[in-house]
Homoserine dehydrogenase (Blautia wexlerae), 404 residues
Amino acid sequence: MINVAILGYGTVGSGVFEVLNENKESISRRAGQELHVKYVLDLRDFPGQPVEKVLVHDYEQIVSDPEVDIVVEVMGGVEPAYTFVKKALLAGKNVCTSNKALVAKHGRELMDIAKEKSINFLFEASCGGGIPIIRVINSSLTGDEIDEVTGILNGTTNYMLYKMSTEGCEFDTVLKEAQQKGYAEADPTADVEGYDACRKIAILSSLAYERYFDFEDIYTEGITKITPEDMEYAAKLGRTIKLLGTSRRLADGTCYAMVAPFMLGQNSPLYSVNDVFNAVFVHGNMLGDAMFYGSGAGKLPTASAVVGDIVDAAKHLHVNIVTNWNSTPAVLKPLDEVTGRFFVRIKKEAAEEAKKVFGDVEIISLGQLPQECAFITDEMTQGAFEEKLAQIGDQVLAKIRVKD
Ligand code: HSE
C-alpha cells in the first residue's frame, strides 16, 4: 500500500480526494498497489464529511510520518507551499503539485532535490488543467526539436473572452461567473492580468526548449483592456480575441516568449477553443503541427491530472523520472526585434495619416462606431511598429497583436 497526503482541501484538493475515492480500484490497479489517502491537511474543519477522518492541521504530522510516500501539494501560492514541498522532498517523499506559481518560481531547486534523492517532483496539472501536456513534452515528443509552443493557457480568461464575444457580457459579470465555477485563482488578478498564463508558458517553454525561462523575464499583458468594441471589430474581420502564451526557439538559438491578447484568424487551430477549454499548439521539426485540447481549469479536470502524477509517482517511488528540465537560462530575444502584425484602432480623422505611416493598409469601419476606424498592419518588428505608432500619437485608441 502507498500512503498519500494531500495538502489543501480547496477546489483541487477536494477533487483529488474525490477522484482517488471514486476510481480507487482502477487507480490502484494501474499504480500496481493500493493508494490510500492517509492525511488531508487544511486549516479548516469539515464536520460530517468523509475527509474528516483523515484531516490534520499540523504539517509536521505528515512530513515526519515515514509511512507517507507521496505528498500532493494543491494549496496554491508560493508560501507555505514551497516550505512544505521542500521539506517533503528532503524527507524523501515524492511530491505532485498543481501549483504553477511554485513550479515557475522554485521548480529548478525542487527538481534538483528530487533528482538527488532519486524521487520525483511532478507538476502535470500546473499547465493546461486536465491536458497532459507536460508528459507529452517530456516523453512523447522526445524525437523532436520543438520550435513553437503557443497555448490558450488560462481557463478563466478564455471563458470570459468567449462570453464577452458571444453574449456581449460585461467583464465583471463574467469574472464572477468564472469564480463561481471554480476556475479563477484566489486572486483573479493573476488570471486577468496574464500572470497565471505567464507562469505556464515559462514552465512549458523550459521543458520544450531545454532552457530555463524565468517567468519574470516574460512580457505579459492581460485582458483588462479588451473592450466590446474590440470584439465587434474582431467579429467583422472574421476573427476572435484570445489570450495566448506563446514562445518560439529561433534559428539563431535565441528564444522569445510572451503573454498577450491576440486577434486570431479562423485558420488558427486555437480559434475554436472556447469556454473554459485550453489548448496547447506545439510545432516540432519532425512532427510538424500538433495541438492538445481539454478542460483548462476546474476541480475534476485538474484533479485528474494530479492523480495521473500520483500514479506515475507510485510507479517510480525510488526512481527519478528523467525530464527535459535544464537549468541553463534561455537567451531571450528582445521583443522589439520580434516580428508580427498588429490590429490598430484610431480616430476617424487619422485614417489618411495612418496610411502614410503604415503604407496602404485597408481601413475598416463599423457603422455603430462612426468616430473611429481600424486597420491591420503588414508584418514588421515590434520596434518598428511602436515607432510608426508614435507618429500617429494620441489618435490611437487600441492595439492588439494579430495571429493567423
Ligand atoms: N485560474 C486558472 C485558470 C486555473 O483559469 O486557468 C487553472 O490553472
In short: Residues 129, 154-156, 183-185, 191, 196, 296-297 surround L-homoserine (CB under 6 Å). The first helix runs from residue 11 to 22. The chain has a mean pLDDT of 97.
